[in-house]
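Take a look at the protein record below with the fold in mind.
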Amino acid sequence: MNRREFLELSAAAGSALALAHGAPATAGAQSQTRVVVVRAEDHRDGVTRALRLLGADGVSRRHAVVKPNFNSADPFPGSTHPDTLGALVEWLGAAGASRVTVADRSGMGVTREVMEAKGVLAQSKKLGFPTIVLDELPGRDWIAHPLRGSHWSRGALFPRLLEEAEAIVSTCALKTHRFGGHFTLSLKNSVGAVAKYGPDGYNYMSELHTSAHQRKMIAELNTLYRPALVLLDGLEAFVAGGPEAGTKVRPGVMVAGTDRVAVDAVGVAILRLYGTTQAVSAGKIFAQEQIARAVELGVGIAGPEQIQLITDDAAGEALLSRLKPILAAG
């Protein structure tokens, strides 16, 4: 089976498998996408229940690469909680993944030092998964994508590891972003999947963070791939500040889906429910620049009416009754 046949077969089976390079995803054409929201007090319990309820597929017999949020060594929700990462890796193995790799690039620290401080390297030995420090990949392991029509002057460099992965899994936290992103959820998590520096020393992240189009540029990176699964850990959240520290609340939720726009829309709704920044609170959720640009590019669904919210108990239903009016407002 060649690459095109593999992707066509996967799409027909309802999987949201790895690659969408050079063209926007087609999720926006779907009528509805499921987003699971479960109330939980324990990360492992939340991961297991959310993924079981979602019924996520697309990982059986596949090489799954997990992209966590190790932007810094700060404690959760500043970075992925170790219990969430561990439970996710174990779930992928139980779901039949042929192998699982964890890969990331930090934005506010040296990646290897961040992973060491967070216990990821020790955890990888214990659970038996390889960990890839993206910054340390040689030049030959990066693929240049021009991102024509985007706000990136040189496009972006995407790692061959993710380019060739059979299933990409994104796990992110629930938080605001005071450096221009406004919020950092699954769309923003993609920033840590691309290179900071080019072979000539060009700083792609400097371009991003100094641009008036930063939020649109975040969305544009998401045309580089399509995840099989997105897991948003909202047991705790930053409703102001972020990404490494801020005003913390405890929503006690775990969110899972396969559509980044849908997951982020639900994440923004939760931030609004708990009272967040003016930038995140302003206007319709689908008018937020990250989300609006992602919709324009076909990265995900086009509006809140395409989100089917699912939960598994009375506490979850009570939360959904509060979230639905916020989402319905657009």
Remarks:
- The chain has a mean pLDDT of 91.
- The chain has one domain: 22-328.
